[in-house]
């Protein structure tokens, strides 16, 4: 059985994942409007990824007989990302914040000797390494091309090819 403290903390994390989804949707819509459909597509896929993260936590709470309590999702920024390098820098910074949240949850589970929750969180610890790595790689690429039109066009096409693949942890349940 999960402690009240762990249940509350996991519900907070569900809200944080859904806030992340909303943030990335906002970034996607900004770039849709700006005319870079590939960048927009990358963020629309990221929107789905974050919803999948929330779903993993919801499934875990349900499997443990705990209650999922959905809270309001706070407002997200709607601009401030003039260039693709800016928007991926904001993404990296946000993912670093999420990594800290996951690490705090992991430490909390460990302190309570709640090893099942700790193991569930291990998936997220690894996912955060990938999230930060992906954002950094895109910062590097967009910084390299700067405002070179051909470079931007080529990178935008590359990002247009991204598709959503549900995490295996979700599809096997
Ligand atoms: Fe749910 Fe982008 O971490």
Radius of gyration: 17 Å
Number of helices: 6
Helix/strand structural class = mainly alpha
Give the number of DSSP strands: 0
Major sheet attributes: none
Helix proportion range: over 70%
Distance between the termini: 20 Å
Written overview of the protein:
By secondary structure, the chain is mainly α. It is built from 6 helices and no strands. Helix 1 runs antiparallel to helix 2 (37-63) and helix 1 runs antiparallel to helix 3 (84-111). The longest helix has 31 residues, at 4-34. It is elongated and about 55 Å long. The model has no long low-confidence stretch (mean pLDDT 97). Bound molecules: MU-OXO-diiron (FEO). MU-OXO-diiron binds at residues 17, 20, 50, 53, 95, 98, 131.
From the structure above, extract its key features.
6 helices, mainly alpha, binds MU-OXO-diiron
Blueprint of the fold:
Elements: H1 4-34, H2 37-63, H3 84-111, H4 115-145, H5 149-160, H6 168-171
Helix pairs in contact: 1-2, 1-3, 2-5, 3-4
Quick structural overview:
By secondary structure, this protein is an all-alpha fold.
């Amino acid at each position: 059985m999960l402690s009240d403290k762990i249940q509350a903390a996991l519900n907070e994390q569900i809200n944080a994942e859904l806030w992340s989804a909303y943030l990335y949707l906002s970034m996607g819509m900004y770039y849709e409007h700006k005319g870079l459909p590939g960048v927009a597509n990358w963020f629309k896929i990221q929107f789905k990824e974050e919803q999948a993260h929330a779903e993993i936590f919801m499934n875990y709470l349900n499997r443990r007989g705990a209650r999922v309590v959905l809270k309001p999702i706070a407002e997200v920024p709607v601009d401030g990302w003039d260039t693709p390098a800016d928007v991926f820098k904001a993404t990296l910074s946000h993912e670093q914040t999420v990594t800290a949240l996951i690490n705090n949850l992991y430490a909390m589970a460990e302190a309570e000797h709640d090893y099942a929750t700790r193991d569930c969180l291990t998936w997220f610890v690894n996912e955060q390494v990938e999230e930060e790595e992906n954002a950094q790689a895109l910062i590097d690429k967009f910084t390299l091309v700067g405002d070179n039109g051909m470079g931007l066009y080529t990178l935008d096409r590359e990002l247009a090819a991204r598709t959503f693949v549900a995490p295996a942890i979700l599809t096997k349940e």
